[in-house]
Each structure stands twice: as structure tokens, then as C-alpha cells.
Amino acid sequence: MRLSKKPAKTTPAPPTGGVRSQLLSDALRCLAEDPASDQQSTRISVLDLGPGNAGTVNFLSQFNAKIVFLDILDCAELINAPEDLSLADAIRLCQQHIQLPADTRFDVLLLWDYLHHMNLTVLEGLSATLQNSLHRSTMGYGFGALHSNQTLDHLQYGLTAMDRLTQREANPPGTFTPHPQQRLSEHFLCMRIAKSTLLQGGRLEMLFEAR
């Protein structure tokens, strides 16, 4: 899996438009803290599960934030894992393909809708792999669905402001099966869903907190 601190070199389609978020600013609140305060004595670190976005880099650069792009969809073994995969094998698979900086504890996880590209066992494996890269104040931001039988479009996102993001349509590799909020709570155990709001089309906007 490609692990990068810079966006992937792509020629994406133009964004479909800006979207104002109700919960994004809560996830990014560490960016607004006084740099002289004890809470922001070190450089802010952000983990984005996507392949990289120039808008996100430009926005976070004004805060001197460290950003790592995981590009989870670049790993076919994770997004196309067999349903009968054991949890132990899922954890080994995630640890094999996800090599995060050992000295970094992320302040923000931009989950977007990438949690829905893997089955529930791999989702637990991902949670176990990310656990040691979080701290008590880590916040997360992502999307979910009300029901598992919903049909949701996969989108790629980027940050443009504390409460605003861009989105564009994308064709995901592998499967894309929305996990409802309850299933995310039961299987993505490194974080809990602190808040959620219902968006148009049945999509949920969710704020996560480290457990």
C-alpha cells in the first residue's frame, strides 16, 4: 500500500461543489487551538485514508500540520478480502499492508467513506492496527448509512475550510457496501461515534472520538 505525505499525482475531475459540514469543525478543533497552549505543544498530525487531495494539503499547510495519506483503496487484499477471513488473519493482513510512522499519534482521522470498502472482519483488523496510532483526544470524521441495504455513491473528498469540504464522484475498486452506524460502532472499536447528522439521501455525517 502506498503511504504518502503528499497527494497522489492524478488528474481528477473538477469538484462537484463545496459542501458545508455541521460536524467537520468539531473533528478539526485541534487546529483552532492556541499554538501556545499545552494542548497544541506539538505539531498536529492528520491521517487521511484516501489517496491524497491537493485541497486538503493546501488547507492543512496553513496550520503546519503533518498529513499522511493511507490510500486504503490501493490495497486489493483489504478491500476484496474473503468473508470467511478470521479476525487474527485480518489483523495480520492490515499490519502487513499498513505501515504507519511508529513515532506518530494522529490527532485527526479523515475516514470519509473508506470504512465501507471492507468487510466487517477487516474493519476490526483495521481498528486494531490504528489503535496504537491514536491518543485520548484523537477525533475522526466520516460518513455512514442508516441501513445496510442503502445505495450510496462513493465520493472522494477534500478539505477547504474548517467547516467545508469538496466532493466528487469516483468509481471505487472492489465492493462498496455501506455499514450502518450500529455496525460501525460494533466493529470499528478504536473509536466511538460521538455525534451523527442525517444528510440528503440517507447519508450520515459522523463525528468520531477515540475510545
Secondary structure class reads alpha/beta
Report mean pLDDT, rounded to a whole number: 88
Helices and strands, in N-to-C order? EHEHEHHEHEEEHEE
Shape: globular
Number of DSSP helices?
6
End-to-end Cα distance: 27 Å
- Give the biggest beta sheet: 6 strands, mixed
- Our estimate of the beta-strand percent is 25-35%
Any idea what the radius of gyration is?
Answer: 16 Å
Low-confidence stretches: 6-17
**Count of individual beta strands:** 9
Task: Report strand order across the widest sheet.
Answer: 3-2-4-5-9-8
Helix percent band = 10-25%
Q: What features would you describe in this structure?
A:
This protein has 211 residues and is of the alpha/beta class. It starts with 17 loop residues before the first strand and ends with a strand. It has six helices and nine strands. The longest helix is centred in the middle third of the chain and has 12 residues, at 120-131. The protein has helices spanning 24-27, 54-61, 76-79, 87-97, 120-131, 181-187; strands at residues 18-20, 45-48, 66-69, 106-112, 134-145, 155-161, 164-169, 191-198, 203-210. α4 crosses α5 (120-131).
Short description:
The chain is built from six helices and nine strands. With 211 residues, it is an alpha/beta fold.
Topology:
Layout: E1 18-20, H1 24-27, E2 45-48, H2 54-61, E3 66-69, H3 76-79, H4 87-97, E4 106-112, H5 120-131, E5 134-145, E6 155-161, E7 164-169, H6 181-187, E8 191-198, E9 203-210
Parallel strand pairs: 2-3, 2-4, 4-5
Antiparallel strand pairs: 1-7, 5-9, 6-7, 8-9
